[in-house]
Amino acid sequence: MKKFLFAILGFALVSAAHAELKLPGVISDHMVLQQNQSDPIWGWDDPGTSITISFAGQNYSTTANADGKWVVKLSPQPFNAAPQTLTVYGSTTREIHDVLIGEVWLCSGQSNMEMGIGAVQNGIKEIAAANHPGIRLLMVPNLWQPEPKTDQMGNWKVCTPENVAMGGWNGFSAAGYFFGRELYQQLNIPIGLIDADWGGTRIESWTAPEGFSSVPALKGLDAAVQMSNPQTPAHQIKLEQVLGETESWLASARAAAAKHRQPPAMPIYPPELLPPHDLQNPTALYNGMIYPLVPFCLRGSIWYQGEANNGEGMLYADKMKALVNGWRKVWSQGNFAFYFAQIAPFNYGGKPERLSELWEAQAAAAREIANAGMAVINDIGNLTDIHPKNKQEVGRRLALLALAKTYGKKDLVCSGPVFQALKIEENQLRVQFAHAESGLASRDGQSLNWFEIIDAETGGFVKAEARIDGPAVVLSSPQVRHPVAMRFAWSQLAEPNLMNKAGLPAGAFRAGEVPQRDWLATAVPEAKEYRLVYDLDLNRLGPEIHWNVDNREKVQGSFDRIAYCLELEDAAGDNRSVYVSMDAFTDSLDKIGVPTYQSKARFQQNLAHMNVYSNVKEIVTGTDLDGGNVEFWPNNYGPNNAAKVLNASSAGFDFGDEVSDPADGYGSMQVHNHNAKQTIFAINHWREGSGADLGIGNAPSGNADWTFAANAGNFKIKRLRILVRGH
Q: How do 472-476 and 428-434 pair as beta strands?
């Protein structure tokens, strides 16, 4: 009998423990509810449990569904800075104390949003002064998930010096805090800030599945996300196929095992069916850090991210649209505000224009996303620190956007000058700006910088003289007679000084029709005197050379000079180009191309009157240079300096190597400057295609002339042009 009583008692205790009301972390003491909206309150309890909520003199009732989840929507309330209590009655009772009603903002992105208040300039003083009872802070712990997570472990805290410095990367998001502080001081109403960010993360990891499907340009990403989701037809169809193949294999394997034979190879589970399995996978951070906040009411969100997507150009604008569309879809609050910081200048290395192209995408997103805005911060960055410390001004500029666009503050300038129109006026360009009604100015009092223009017929972009004329800037240059296009701040190193009278800077942009001229035409003045003989996409390298352009029949008459132009661009967008011309070392057009065995081209000799142009700083450039030599042959070769080339070594492959058998062997197409101890360019082992050796300048490691580099597959663009100058 005693055992029976203990069993009954144990069952009752287990049942009582199970029957417990649960609320998400975002609904906790010290929270801020969004004013003038039907704020959802939700949680979990035993299925069928009656739930009653009491708040602000009103009661609300509902029932937990079959999954145990319940939700009610409160009546819209005006802002209220007086602390209130929200009580939830279910299997148990929960009281949420110190609830304010005001404005709620989500602060998200990567490390520049994550950077805490303790890591910024004057951080110690800012922490000491952060005593704002009307500002409430919620920091979402960093967590990525393969599937949407229903809750997160963060809770609301009152903004005090102790709380603002707690957790994260030296405390609460500095950009988020300074944004909220400015709103609090200007609006004098409670502000709730949710900090959900993670350094080094890509935008697609923060994006909801619904976002990818809303942008046609991202159909590949959308298809991948759909395939990885067990709820979608695409996943289910593929999984059924896999299960069928596995069942067939299992039957075959059992049959083989019964006969003591080796079974066939087991089918591999398709990786595309796996859910997000890495921090950077699409939706991984949305699942772990954003989904648990839904549907808590927001006024809007601020965003500071892009460094991890640098190099994507206008594709980033599409990804921003997907992010915003997805968030707005799952929150079901319409087009809530989305304001973001354009990332700051920084020396990333590689192609300087990559960051400008990302800036261009961010500006496009600001124009094309409804109820969005961008804060330009190119005047408060640090070229040697990817985490500039003036987050006070970043937060203030984001707050200016909210104050003007969301809260309707009049006579408030929230944007720097924005390109409006371009007009050609004979030998100058007039660039008209919006947000310049009170006039334009130079931030440092110096001449305006980082403006460039290009001529309709010759040359590339050159520095422009820039003159302010009311809300316009007039551009000209002695080098440009017929300007047709311009660009501004078109480099990752650009910290331009153009601003409006409100002190807000202009962001990077370009305008006009740029003439279709390549590097050879814009960077090599003498190129116009030469005729193109061969043009080759080096993706077509192999045992036989199939030229993209072969003008041997069109190039008539003799020639006195030969020129080679090699252009290489890697996956990161880093472009390396070189042009070298010299007195002709042969009178046969058949022998100036890639020296295959069939061409009968074999040259190892000095070059006369060499001219070199390059965008590679290590290359010695100039005209009428001495010390050139060529090594063209289809043979194998060794490092011995049998030809006694000046400065060459016999210890390694360089600009003085020795031809050997077989005659149809490894192959060398190299031009050198032995006076400078330098390879100008090399194309070796072409029969290997993507395994060929390509290089401009001396190789940074291994053999100076790129022998055995096998690196051709590393370049997304690789082009060789060969030209001659006639008498």
A: antiparallel
Structure tokens at 20: 């417990």
Degrees, nearest 5: CA angle 19-24-28: 105
Phi-psi region of 725 (alpha: psi -120 to 50; beta: other; left: phi over 0): beta
Alpha helices in 496-561 (DSSP H): 519-523
Q: Which residue has the tokens 């969100």?
A: 301
Alpha-carbon separation of residue 266 from 258, 260, 364 (angstroms): 17, 17, 49
Closest CA to 112 of 498, 486, 381, 409: 381
**Enclosing H/E stretch for 487:** strand 483-488
Q: Are 275 and 133 in contact (CB under 8 A)?
A: no
Q: Which string of b and e fits 86-102 if b means at least 16 CB within 10 Å?
A: bebbbbeebebebbbbb
Task: Give the separation between CA 669 and CA 594, rounded to whole angstroms.
Answer: 7
pLDDT tens by residue, 417-452: 999 999 999 999 999 999 998 899 999 999 999 999
Domain ranges of the chain: 233-273, 418-512, 519-726
Q: What is the pLDDT of residues 191-227, one digit of tens each?
A: 999 999 999 999 999 999 999 999 999 999 999 999 9
Give all strands (DSSP E) within 316-417, no chain letters: 337-341, 372-375
Rounded CA separation 308/110 (Å): 8
Sheet holding 678-684, edge to edge: 603-607, 628-633, 668-673, 678-684, 693-696
What is the separation of C-alpha 608 from the centre of its chain, rounded to a whole number of angstroms?
46
493 secondary structure, DSSP code: T
Residue 531 · residue 724 · CB < 8 Å: yes
Distance CA 358, CA 418 (A): 16
Composition of the chain by helix, strand, coil, percent to 5? 25, 30, 45
Q: What is the DSSP letter of 405?
A: I
Number of Cα atoms under 13 Å in the Cβ half of residue 129: 9
pTM: 0.80
Residue 320: partners with Cβ closer than 8 Å, 6 or more residues away: 203, 340, 361, 362, 365, 369
**Which residues have a Cβ under 8 Å from the Cβ of 466 and sit 6 or more positions away?**
447, 448, 449, 451, 473, 474, 475, 498
Q: Which amino acid is at 650?
A: S
